[in-house]
Specification:
With 160 residues, this protein is an alpha+beta fold. It is built from six helices and four strands, in the order αβαββααααβ. 52% of the residues lie in helices and 11% in strands. It binds zinc ion (ZN).
């Protein structure tokens, strides 16, 4: 994996605060949300995967054509937030926050937000996307597929 690929992955070691493996379904939902939100923003997803044995997952979106711009940073911030916000929605929490599992995403978010003066704690844009019924249905559908086959490439599903 090249340095560039590593930077573009929304991946993280997903462990609960007690060190127990996260439920497979929640792990899948977290990664599916990154992927579906990326697609909703017009980005292509190269692959998305979960590794339940190691309680981790990754999603790799294509690099935006407007890379390095404020718009690209805004998109990257929204994509980074999607995993944590989907978990909050699953748990029925009234407001969104960075989850323990989204620590790596949070690092990415703070880094891209800092560059353009964006707010890495403002979840309103991503909440608006994930609260759309069509988007949330896709997230749940893709999560179910991920639980079954663990790694999905762009060409293998109707969700992208
Ligand atoms: Zn994540």
């Amino acid at each position: 994996m090249t340095e560039d690929t590593k930077r573009r992955c929304w991946g993280e070691v997903i462990l609960s605060p007690t060190g127990e493996a996260l439920a497979v379904h929640e792990l899948a939902l977290h990664e599916a949300a990154h992927a579906i939100v990326a697609v909703d923003l017009g980005r292509e997803v190269i692959w998305v995967e979960i590794d339940p044995e190691r309680s981790r997952g990754e999603m790799l979106p294509e690099t935006p054509w407007h890379r390095g711009t404020r718009r690209a940073a805004e998109e990257n911030l929204i994509i980074a937030m999607a995993g944590s916000v989907a978990q909050c929605m699953l748990k029925g929490w009234g407001s969104s926050r960075w989850t323990h599992e989204g620590l790596r995403d949070r690092e990415i978010a703070y880094s891209v937000a800092g560059e353009f003066g964006l707010d890495p704690e403002d979840f309103s844009c991503v909440s608006k996307i994930l609260n759309r019924v069509d988007v949330w249905e896709k997230v749940k559908g893709l999560a179910d597929r991920l639980v079954e086959c663990h790694r999905i490439h762009t060409c293998e599903t109707e969700y992208f």
